[in-house]
Amino acid sequence: MSFTGVIGARRSAVVALAMASSIALPVQAQEHGDDDGSEEGSEIVVQATRSGRRVQDEPIRVDILDREEIEEKLLMRPGNIAMLVSETPGVRVQTTSPSLGAANIRIQGLKGRYTQILADGLPLYGGQTPSIGLLQIPPTDLGQVEIIKGAASALYGPSALGGVINLVSRRPADEPQGELLVNATSRGGQDVTAYSSAPISSTLGASVTAGFDRQDRKDLNDDGWADMAGYRRWSVRPRLFWDDEAGSNALLTFGAMTEQRGGGTLPGATAPDGAAFVQAQHSRRYDLGFTAETPLDGIGTLHLRAAGVTQLHDHQFGETIENDRHRTAFGEASLSGEAGATSWLAGAAFQMDDYRSRQFGIFDYRYTVPALFAQIEQQVASDLALSGSARWDDHSEYGSRVSPRLSALYRPGPWTVRASLGQGFYAPTPFVEEVEANGLSHVEPYRRLRAEVADTASIDFGYATGPFEANVSFFGSNIDHAVQVRTIAADRITLANAEGITRTRGAEVLVKYRWEAITLTGSYVHVAASEPDPDASGRRTVPLTPRDSAGLVAMWEKEGRGRVGLEAYYTGRQSLDDNPYRTRSKPYVQLGAMGELILGRISLFANAENILNVRQTRYDPLLLPARASTGAWTVDAWAPTDGFVLNAGVRFRFGAK
User: Fold this and answer.
1) Do strands 602-609 and 91-97 pair parallel, antiparallel, or not at all (unpaired)?
2) Based on the number of CB atoms within 10 Å of its own CB, is 468 exposed (0-12), middle (13-18) or buried (19 or more)?
3) CA-based, 20 to 30 A from 271: which of 563, 630, 639, 651?
4) Over residues 282-299, mean pLDDT
5) 42 has a pLDDT exceeding 50
6) What is the pLDDT of residues 375-384, one digit of tens each?
7) Given this model, what pLDDT does residue 400 score?
8) Is position 183 within any domain?
9) Which candidate, 365, 290, 382, 304, places its Cα nearest to that of 336?
10) Residues 6+ apart with CB under 8 A from 109
11) What secondary structure, in 3-state letters, does 103-114 show?
């Protein structure tokens, strides 16, 4: 469900830059304060800019989900962040492997590999987050989530061609506190998550998050193939926070996760070729991250960041075994300051991404990328601000690249206008969606690929008065040399750069009305995306990109008593690729309802998702008649595969509120 919560501050990764919402509603709501128009008492300062600017004064764009919204989504899907981000306009969680349930995040119609996921500004889930990784990130310890739309290479380097999602951790309160959540679903899923934090001294605090999540493997249409993958996952993340009175602070974090996930044919069943086909993956991830900042008298503020990640995967695709290791190392130092109406930041960074396959070493790679970056923001007038940033990356494989970004903010009265232009690049790896879902065994060696380059632009118009807010955004992007899958035989594929431009154009509309304890939110997104056809001349619509989608949400909430919400979401037609049953998907509507009853420190909650039981296998089979050239046994997922799901549970709170 989508109950839009909105404000906060964030720490960014490479230039520590805050961006005003692509939806812009939270900015305007706070900008005008209470209904009487006062701005007193509701001012929001953007911490991530390190310049002390209010969020409504920032010319660059970010969509911020606060702790309130995180808690709402936590009650619906405690095990991962997929639902948390999926119902933000312009953001779509796309299933990439129906066999394992893996999914990635598409921002404004762009492929999921272009989206960088960060934690406290650090690449703790790898330089290119695996699709399965999205389902292994719990929301329990998040304080807020920031979604940056459009080319962000000027800010975050070559992994952020389409946008960035930054997950900001909760900070310990002045007194010990904690919570325990237990959840169960009607489809055989269970979740147990726990969070605890406490001050250790006047300057030092600590938190720890742990969780166990499991799901039964389910065959909902009795064809012998799992429509819902089964899994068992354990995770733990301790953090240390340090702050002193002089303005210095630091964060140290460690994370560990292990998961066993399985799909494919059920015991005793076979694929259409008469043989069993089990698809499974054993994942382990270990990461370590550090951030710090300290003021330097007469100079500015020094910022330091560092991280290291190791991910191990054991894949099974029928009789084929693929074992691999991903490693990422990251370090950055920057200096920021301000002079009058001008704020600035400059620094240097280094990132290393390393992949090793035990069975298919020909696809191994090791990228090293030193970089220099700079940012400047200028308050030209009381209602006009400009921002510019640029980054130079010296990629070990794809050479030197310069990525610029320009943004402007104009605020005449109750109106807010933001415009942004950016360019970025993406360093190709073998792991496009089709390969990541089905392994390397069907991929032929390919010639050296060219870097993918994107130009993006957006303009945003917002208006707010009293309880009413509205926003309209227009966006577009051109990607040159996009990497595509090309079929070269019945069971073989290769990768190649597209011979032409991948074009995306679209618009987002969001309207919100508040009446006492009730909030009504309506949204609409239109996306038109086309690309060169990889296996024929001419162009085609980008598959799995709904041309139209819309949502309507009603929420009643009373502090200390509970909340009730109703939602309806429409997903329009999508072009489909290599689907023998249809070339275009059917449009569908999903309905949902949730409720929470607060009884002191205990909360009882229930959530009903997809009440109309929309399920792809109610229209067509999921299984292909014969195995595809990519190695897949299923068609792409264009609709839910799990149908109606009811979950319910209890949450216990301890210590301070």
Assistant:
1) unpaired
2) exposed
3) 639
4) 95
5) no
6) 999 999 989 9
7) 95
8) yes
9) 304
10) 477, 504, 506, 527, 529, 542, 545
11) EEEEECCCCHHH
Any alpha helices (H) in 344-472, and if so which ranges?
433-438
Q: Please tell me the distance from the alpha carbon of residue 210 to that of residue 196, in angstroms, as a whole number.
A: 9
Give tens-digit pLDDT for 110-165.
Answer: 999 999 999 998 999 988 877 778 788 889 999 888 888 887 777 788 888 888 88
Residue 9 counted as domain residue: no
Question: CA 341, CA 376: separation in Å to the nearest integer?
Answer: 11
Asked if 196 contacts 207 with a C-beta cutoff of 8 angstroms, the reply is yes
- What is the H or E stretch that residue 67 is in? helix 67-74
What is the pLDDT confidence band of residue 441, given thresholds at 50, 70 and 90?
very high
**Distances in Å between the alpha carbon of 341 and those of 39, 375, 380, 622?**
21, 14, 8, 58
Contact between residue 336 and residue 18 where contact means Cβ atoms under 8 Å apart: no
Query: Can you read off the two tokens belonging to residue 42?
Result: 């509701």
In angstroms, rounded to a whole number, what is the distance separating the alpha carbons of residues 573 and 598? 40
What DSSP element (H or E) covers 84? Answer: helix 82-86
pLDDT at 252 over 90: yes
Q: Would you say residue 611 lies in a domain?
A: yes
Residues 6+ apart with CB under 8 A from 174: 199, 656
Pick from 607, 594, 599, 609: which is nearest to 651 by CA?
Answer: 599
- Local structure of 437: helix, strand or coil: helix
DSSP 489-520: ETTEEEEEE-SSEEEEEEEEEEEEEEETTEEE
Residue 479: HSE in the Cβ half-sphere, 13 Å Cα cutoff: 31
Query: What is the distance, to the nearest Å, from the Cα of residue 408 to the centroid of all Cα atoms in its chain?
Result: 25
Single pTM value for the model: 0.90
In a domain, 342, yes or no: yes
Cβ contact 513:467 at 8 Å: yes
* DSSP codes of every residue in 93-159: EEEEETTTTEEEEEETT--GGGEEEEETTB-TT-SS--GGGGGG--STTEEEEEEEES--HHHH-TT
Q: What is the pLDDT of residue 429?
A: 94
Beta strands in 29-114 (DSSP E): 63-65, 91-97, 102-107
Residue 240 predicted with pLDDT over 50: yes
Residue 551 near residue 2, CB atoms below 8 Å: yes
Please state the φ and ψ torsions of residue 53, each to the nearest 5 degrees.
Answer: -75, 145
Domain range for residue 479?
A: 25-655
Residue whose token pair is 């709501």: 29
What Rg do the C-alpha atoms of the chain give, in angstroms? 24
Residue 220 DSSP code: S
CATH code at position 373:
2.40.170.20
Cα distance between residue 543 and residue 109, in whole Å: 10
| Number of domains forming the structure of the chain | 1
**Average pLDDT of every residue of the chain:** 88
